[in-house]
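Write out the 3D structure for:
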Amino acid sequence: MLDAAAIEPPPSPVLSYTLHDVPVRRRFPMMREMMADGHPPFMRAVLTADREDPEAPFDGGFVLHTTGELACCEHYSEAVSYTRTARGAATSPINDYGIFLLLDGVWHLTQGGQTRTIEPGSMVLMDSNVPFHSVKPGKARLRAIRISHRQMDPLIVPGWQRHGIVCAAQPGLGGMLTQYARVLTDEMDRLSPAQADAALDNLCRLFALHSHAQTNHAGPAGHAIHAARLVQIRRHIDQRLADPALSPASVAAAHGMSLRNLHLLFEPTGVSFARYVLRRRLQECRATLASPAQAHRSVTDIAFGWGFNSLTTFYGAFQREFGMAPGEVRRTAGSGDVAPSERPHRIH
């Protein structure tokens, strides 16, 4: 007979940090410095943190749990605001999305020209590579779940990244989804890595179901077909980004559709075919420029390597998209040399 203890899943790694033992005046600076030094290893983003009253008492901390591919960071703090600029996104691109479940407090989130108030129990699917301003006017506690692009992109029609997706804790699908996220993160330490991975996949699919239910572009069947076709087209584009000959005509021909239908496929997302291709190429160029492993490559080599055939077009588009020149991304990523008054902090 097997010993019951032998079949228990191993405990998940846990990393925690609290400011309780830090002098009050040092708590907020300590939290910023601690996060900036790379703790915890979870979706770190260059942000600027501010408080209305720098001298007011402050407390905060976090607990990070990981099991398999499931990573959840519970963060709590006093009133604080975070700002992620286009420059910050350019110098510290993130390769994951985040699902943020608000447990306590109120959260005002501005992204993509929209300001929304998130109530306790609700959650947000968010792309932190899109600049945002986050305000928690009082004590707040939230859980952040890391979601890879590979998991989410095939499930939801693109375009949502501009302003995120809010799931309110309302009766029906929204309540079921938010409760599932809460129970999953409550119980993740008791799951094996395989169980946690499967549960995380279910969470992504439930969020996609919620997203589709909120979309009125087509009926359920038509919307599902539209979404699946668009995902297929996007994969085709991503596989051929480096080809300067990539065009609407070549993509339409490869998928047996007319140019008009190809453009209609992108229309509901608010991002045209040409804009999607340009944005993806710029994102890849930015990530390459920020990578120490690619420091030997020139800006010209990187631009042409990702399908641009005009340096003038590349430089202009890059400046408009990220608010800085390609060379600035490389210098900032390599040296971290930022003026003290502008110095960002890696906080999550």
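The first strand starts at residue 14 and ends at 18.
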